[in-house]
Write a structure and sequence with these properties.
Helix content is 40%, strand content 28%. It is of the alpha+beta class and 82 residues long. Strands 2-1-3 form a three-stranded antiparallel beta sheet, sandwiched between helices. A hairpin with a 2-residue loop joins β1 and β2 (44-52). The two termini are 13 Å apart.
């Protein structure tokens, strides 16, 4: 049940974003080939961005590093794994 709710919420998030968060990319998102990055401080979400799978793989290390420096953690939902 939890997985179904998470998948449906992820699909909604991808549908709202429409395009990859990297402006130069411009790929139209499909939930099976997208990833949602959520910056969290404690239990609160500070920022949520949706990337295509290629961009997500490319930018994840730098985003994790920057968020760690700011005292935030990264939560990732990857459509390829749902």
């Amino acid at each position: 049940m939890k997985e179904t709710i998470q998948r449906d919420a992820f699909k909604f998030s991808v549908g709202r974003a429409i395009f990859c968060a990297i402006p130069e990319c411009g790929v139209i998102l499909d939930w099976k080939r997208a990833a949602e990055f959520s910056a969290c401080k404690g239990d609160k979400y500070v920022s949520i961005k949706v990337f295509c799978a290629d961009c997500a793989d490319r930018v994840r290390p730098s985003i994790e590093s920057k968020l760690s420096d700011l005292g935030l953690r990264l939560e990732v939902i990857d459509g390829r794994e749902l």
